Structures are given as C-alpha cells and as structure tokens.
Amino acid sequence: MALIPFDDRDGSIWLDGEIVPWRDAKTHTLSHGLHYASLVFEGERVYSGTIFKGREHTERLRNSCKLMDFDIPLGDDEVDAAKMAVVEANGIVDGYVRAFCWRGSEMMAVSAQLTTTHVAVAAWEWPSYFDPETKMKGITLDIAKWKRPSPESAPVHAKAAGLYMICTLSKHEAEKKGFQDALMLDYRGYIAEATGANVFFVDDAGTIHTPIADCFLDGITRRTVIALAEANQMKVVQRHMTPEDMAGMTECFLTGTAAEVTPVSKIGDYTFTPAEISRTLVGGYEDLVRGRISL
Questions:
Q1: Is the pLDDT confidence value at 250 over 90?
Q2: Please, what is the end-to-end C-alpha distance for the chain in angstroms?
Q3: Beta strands in 93-155 (DSSP E)
Q4: Which of 11, 33, 128, 148 is spaced 20 to 30 Å from 92 by Cα?
Q5: Does residue 256 contact residue 130 with C-beta atoms inside 8 Å?
Q6: Average pLDDT over the chain, rounded to an integer
Q7: Which of the following CATH numbers is that of domain 132-289: 3.40.50.2000, 3.40.50.300, 3.40.50.2300, 3.20.10.10?
Q8: Is this model's pTM higher than 0.90 or not?
Q9: Quick one: residue 91, left, alpha or beta (phi over 0 = left, psi -120 to 50 = alpha)?
Q10: CATH code for the structural domain at 12-125
C-alpha cells in the first residue's frame, strides 16, 4: 500500500481558531515545539460520528500543558467544539482525532515564557491499529532496552512529544527483529507499558494484573477497560510487576486509544494464548464505544 504523506492530503484542519485547508496548516521551522519538544497532544477515536470520551481527552490535554508550564488559550467547551468541527468538516464517521498544543517561534532558546501557545486539531479515517486477523491471534512484542524515566527526571504524566522519542526507538528496533511492538520497563526494572499502549496480564486463576501507572500515563482506555472488567465481575490488581512475573501469566493484552483492546501472544520469550478474558474485553470494549452498552 502506497504511503500517503500527512502533509499532502485533502481535507481541513483546525488551526488557532479557524478551519484551514489541510495543506495550509503550517508552523514555522523555528518553532520551540519542534526544537525543544514543548508540544503535547491527544489521540482520540471517533465512533459513528462521536468522539469517545472527548471531554476526558480535553481535560488531559490541558493537564499536559500545565505540566509543561503553559496552558491552552481556549476553554474546554471551545476545544471540544473545535474537535467536532474538524470531524464534521472532514466527514469522519469512524476515525481518529489528534488535538495538540505547542510553543511558537518568539523565543529560540531553552526559556520560552514569551512564546505563543498554538492549538491545532486534525482528524482522519483510521481503522483498527492492528488488522482484525492479526489482532485476535495476538501480536508479538520485543522487550525494549530503553526504559520509562523516573518522575524526578521527566514530566511522566504529560502526554508530551519528547517522551515518545524512546518509544519510536524501541518500536523501530522491535520491528527490525520481526515483532510488532515493544514492552518497556521502567527505571526500576518493573514492567511499564508498550510504546503507545498500557499492558495487562491474566493469571491462571483469571485475575487481571496491570502495572501501577506511577511513571507513565494512566491511559483513558486503561481506566475504561478496568471499569469494564470489574463490571464483568473480573478481579483487577494494580501492582508493580517484574519481567519474571510474566512466566505465571496465561493471557496478555494492550489497551489504548489506537490499540483499543489488542491481545498479545508473545513478549520476548514469554508466550500467551488469547482466550476468554481477552475475547470478553475486546467485544465489550467494542460494544461500549459503539453505545451498545454503558458503564
């Protein structure tokens, strides 16, 4: 399939208060956001024309800005309206929305107090992150050499562009080895997350285990799936987990806006078999985002 560059597409993008043609949505090359990674973003899904948990994403976007020492120059209602305007302008029924904020070009140094905060929203059609056949078989993950940083060394609870640099490196290395993604450990050696999704494991008693989100994002999908599991009378334990803990797990799955609920069949030398709990949560999440059930 031919690659379609993201800077050369038909459609519209919301940029600093107005809808502009897709190809005209530009910023300067001397943007602080580009040179110093002072950019935060949200990834959101559109199902049947509705953004799933859009307000929660807007609130997290603002929190990410504040953790990066700036703020969105819009109210939450205005951000939500901008997202829906883009969805409607592009005729998106099922797709993806990316809202993002970054510091502009007034200052080109580490300090950036006088820079303008820019806001943009783009949306495009996007099917499942992994194709359905691969998804239900379970994807495979390498174990990354890069580790999630300590809260004392980075704003780990911001969805900030700079924090994804090691995710890109980890995913590239995994793909070179024939894996689809990578599992990242944290600075202590505990299991953290995949490169763009949270991770869950199931033991042979049916208990679901997931790492404590103390140095990485407590994902909106992660919280949703925990609530969904508990609504299905499943026990969920949040705890620190070592790589060796994977030896006692029978199922594994990832959760995220892009990944939704995606079963995993292998992490490094550890193997898993997608089974009843994975199937229940894959189907339950689909029912939830489509409005067929509620929590």
A1: yes
A2: 39
A3: 95-103, 117-125, 139-148
A4: 33
A5: no
A6: 96
A7: 3.20.10.10
A8: yes
A9: left
A10: 3.30.470.10
